[in-house]
């Protein structure tokens, strides 16, 4: 029993990390249909900037705030300098641009920061919480809590606010959105800033658990992308559930089958789900009117 | 950009014209991975080589002749390493090559050097580099097989017969896992749990719970590199596992204690080199003067802590310098013969005694069994 509970805790810790990254994909995808492969780099920047600001003597909350703000600015710059000039290009080209941006950000942070692995102290100490013979770190609860908060925030944003609906409208039909008075340029800028900020916040929360270095972004982005696809790209609920599900699948496979097949088992299930439900678990069916 | 400039500009200058200016000099070539994914290996190696050659020339060179270092940065790319090795031999006409930060780049340089009959001292770990013995190839880092042997010797001494293994799936972890499983039988030890993790995984409690519940397990060994072992160590304490934990030489550095946390790392044992504990060595230790001098010089010049990897380059160049001195000639064939006859050369990694059958020349005494105590290292033996 305690064994199963430990596997579940392990899965939830990892799953919440995936969910946080997956949530970051949501906004940009909803605004433009672009899967932003630089999302993992936003997570890395959030962690790395916090590490270096904290090391230079700033208190942790302030360092985290600076990291989120700077990363949001990087997101805006990415939109202005790389995505906007290529606006007429097909979505696939834009996705390739984000891959290029991710390589660029990784290379730049290798020079701006360093190539070492870093961490900073967990928010509420390193002592684990014991539940029925299993343990979970308090930082894991921060990550899970952060993922829930962002999920609720995004859900409210997209369903209850005019701005959120404007983002969805822009994605649906840019020209029509413009005609009804939506400032689509602003919507794009906003969506990159928000996505980057969410990624950075995720980076701040997960770094005490995963540690960080200039090259953690790619692995995180891949797992987060897989989680988002599993849940349904563009749906905050899908990102959240997909992340947790992927984490639990990995932990349970590692626990009951073999850790050698952990990633394989998780991806086989993702493939199976996508085979029967190509939109993911919670994805919208796209209906094109001809 | 700064990093590439400092390493490639001197190399480029040397390659461009200075090489032809002084043909009488002893020319030693090097291709290391100063940039790219293996930069943590190549960067301290390049800095060490530059520092040592500068120092050597200030002291009058070898047998009165100045030494010139032709240094290239292969960026961890085996194809580039091959090109640079060819260039070193054909254009720069070096008499010996030191380098090959990774096993991949080493293998590329090795084939070129063997064909051209130029002695080559590799700085990479894999045992395949020197086994079977290749005529012109030598290496300085101890192998992961030796690390396994050192750890199992210590386990045997403490009376452990059943151990759990949790390995990273990266090249380092996978190779050491295989080597350890290969030699474990020699020590009367049985592996009762064999788990793996991906080097980028965030949580290993599932694997560790399985090991914890394995029947009769007495100690746990974690062959791995990078952040994985730090997370394993943290999760180990999180689960409250009381069994002794062994890490590998891959994380033998102060940053491991920092990343895992002082409390979590307490009591962890691992095989490390003398360089890591230079200050703790007894005065009688033959390696003490060498490691203290190198550490002081490197840290004063570059203002960053020495690493084991820079130490490999130190030993590689020291071997070549020693061979040329004894041979009294800088002919490649003479250097090779002298390298093979190296006896009792004290380096930072260990004391080298080569033979026609052994082109590494280190034994298990090169490793010190270290234990983390109060956030610092102590020597167990």
TrEMBL record, chain A:
CDD domains in alphabetical order: TM_PBP1_LivH_like
- Transmembrane keyword on record: yes
Signal peptide location in the record?
A: none
Q: Name one GO biological process term.
A: amino acid transport
What is the top-level taxon of the source organism? Answer: Bacteria
List the keywords (alphabetical): Amino-acid transport, Cell membrane, Membrane, Transmembrane, Transmembrane helix, Transport
What are the GO MF terms of this UniProt record? transmembrane transporter activity
Task: List all membrane-crossing ranges.
Answer: 7-31, 51-78, 90-109, 129-158, 179-205, 238-258, 264-282
Output the Gene Ontology cellular-component terms.
Answer: plasma membrane
Where in or outside the cell? Cell membrane
The membrane-topology field of this record reads: Multi-pass membrane protein
Instruction: Describe the family membership recorded for this protein in Swiss-Prot or TrEMBL.
Output: Belongs to the binding-protein-dependent transport system permease family. LivHM subfamily.
What PANTHER family is this protein classified in?
A: ABC TRANSPORTER PERMEASE PROTEIN, BRANCHED-CHAIN AMINO ACID TRANSPORT SYSTEM PERMEASE PROTEIN LIVH
Q: What is this protein called?
A: Branched-chain amino acid transport system permease protein
From TrEMBL, chain B:
Question: Cross-referenced InterPro entries, in alphabetical order?
Answer: BCAA_transport (IPR051010), Leu-bd (IPR028081), Leu_Ile_Val-bd (IPR000709), Peripla_BP_I (IPR028082)
Record's superkingdom?
Answer: Bacteria
Q: Which GO terms describe its biological process?
A: amino acid transport
Name the CDD domains on file: PBP1_ABC_RPA1789-like
User: Which keywords fit this entry according to its UniProt record?
Assistant: Amino-acid transport, Signal, Transport
**Domain Leucine-binding protein as annotated: residue spans:** 25-373
Q: Which Pfam family, giving just one, matches this sequence? A: Peripla_BP_6
Residues passing through the membrane, by range: none
Record's keyword annotation contains Endoplasmic reticulum: no
Signal peptide annotation: 1-24
Q: Which family does it belong to?
A: Belongs to the leucine-binding protein family.
Name-wise, this protein is Branched-chain amino acid transport system substrate-binding protein
Source organism (scientific name): Albidovulum denitrificans
Which classification does the entry list for the species?
Bacteria, Pseudomonadati, Pseudomonadota, Alphaproteobacteria, Rhodobacterales
